[in-house]
Amino acid sequence: MTNLIGQVQELSALVNYQDGAVVSKEVIKKKEGTVTVFAFDEGQGLSEHTAPFDALVYVVDGRVEITIDGKPSALKAGDMIIMPANKPHALKAIKRFKMMLVMIKVAVSAF
What we know:
Layout: E1 22-30, E2 33-40, E3 45-49, E4 55-61, E5 63-68, E6 71-76, E7 80-83, E8 89-93, E9 97-104
Antiparallel strand pairs: 1-2, 2-9, 3-8, 4-7, 4-9, 5-6, 5-8
């Protein structure tokens, strides 16, 4: 991970498209959470899975269909969606697209 702290960056320039591939770059990695930028070629995606934490997706470029708990949503550049913890979700690139994924890990204490 390159140290980007204090440097102005163009979000869409942090990752490049590759034919038939998904490319990612972790921008922040802390025990409290991560920020990762992805580039998906058209037709690429992530199969249905769950995560133990809420995740925010911000679409930087292109178009994607994100399905959360069986409900599909079409997103374009400038759109965002929050994927809730422990709900199944998947995504597929309608066109090449780039996204920023922000995941914040919040510990829940038992009383």
